[in-house]
Amino acid sequence: MIESRKNDHIRIASTQDVEEGNTLFDEVKLIHMALPEIDFEDTDPSVVVFNKRLSFPFIIGAMTGGTETAGKINTTLAKCAEEFGIGMYVGSQRIGIVKPETAWTFRVVAENAPTALKIANLGAPQISRLSEKELIDWVNEAIDMINADAIAIHLNPAQEVFQPEGEPWFRGVLEKLRVIKKAVNKPLIVKEVGNGISREVAKALSVVKPDAIDVGGLGGTSFIKIESIRSGNLDEASVFRDWGIPTAISICEVRSVYDGVVIASGGLRNGLDGAKAVALGANAFTMSRPLLIAALNGIDEVRRVIGRLMREFRIAMFLTGSRTVSDLARAPVVLGLTITSWLSQRGIKCGRGY
Ligand SMILES: Cc1cc2nc3c(=O)[nH]c(=O)nc-3n(C[C@H](O)[C@H](O)[C@H](O)COP(=O)(O)O)c2cc1C
After folding, report:
1. Which of 6, 52, 84, 249 is the most core-located residue (most Cβ within 10 A)?
2. Domains and CATH numbers, the chain
3. In sequence order, which residues have a C-beta less than 8 Å from that of residue 319 and are 6 or more positions away?
4. How far is CA 181 from CA 89, 260, 313, in A?
5. Pick from 189, 214, 210: which is nearest to 285 by CA?
6. Which of 116, 176, 175 is CA-nearest to residue 148?
7. Does ligand 1 come within 6 angstroms of the Cβ of 196?
8. What's the confidence (pLDDT) of residue 352?
9. Which of 151, 193, 225 is the best mutation target for the ligand 1 pocket, counting ligand atoms within 8 Å of the beta carbon and taking the most?
């Protein structure tokens, strides 16, 4: 049952149009610098995240594991993470824990990306029903399975409520996150999966003190759409088509109250989107669905996509006169009307205003 769901996700996400909403990165403009006073070669896009140096601030997004196909996808993505010196999340590892015979589909990530930044993954609804001891055991098992540098817990209430066999169980999640943070000796990331994190959620998380928040905003892969294709109830999905917080805005919402690591995800599709995310306050960015499609087309396609992202990110650095990623983080931005109206109604200042 879980296996067939994982394969459904891979099949539907790679063959159908499942992207909804708008990230609003098209409303974020970086200012062209005609006199950068650096050579292109001087740009240094590397950063350090959780004590690992990344060649540029990019992490392969959380996607899969648990089936034969997923094992192959994870192998391909892990090889590229290692080659490029970037990070990689895996998909939810519950299946690898409850069905140990599938754990190899995650372990291939440790085997093929021994030195890369690796991030383990579990879902909030699933951990909400565990005892404290089971919770700590699950998290440690997920970390050990891929020799992870950090653990991500995903918040996905919209996905669960639209999923035919969903588990929309969010009572007590905050307390579970607190237990993980106290008992587990690795950085904790709290992430969304495509509907965004608001200032209120980031504030509520202050009792947990996560090491990173991955905004998982609106404008890319929609799990409302994917789960509705699975259930056949597309009318309900269309009512909630653009439900969520656009990624560019979610970065500002979170950054306005949170000074830890912010990871931008949800609909970023090129290196310029990544550069804009950094200028809005993110420390790193991810992309998922396009890399799933690339991985299904072979490792050279994944290499091509990541190489393109890296070059676009560096071009954006050069054209804003940013030698380092810290320089880019201070680059001025001009925001369009939808974003400025949203931020003013919410009383939020863009940038590192916390
Ligand atoms: C096939 C597929 C499976 C996914 N599974 C997970 C998962 O298990 N855990 C998770 O945290 N996010 C999962 N995600 C969500 C992504 O990490 C990401 O938040 C979302 O796809 C938005 O990014 P994108 O627009 O670049 O695809 C999955 C995404 C895809 C496409």
Report:
1. 249
2. 2-346 (3.20.20.70)
3. 30, 32, 33, 36
4. 19, 14, 33
5. 214
6. 116
7. no
8. 55
9. 193
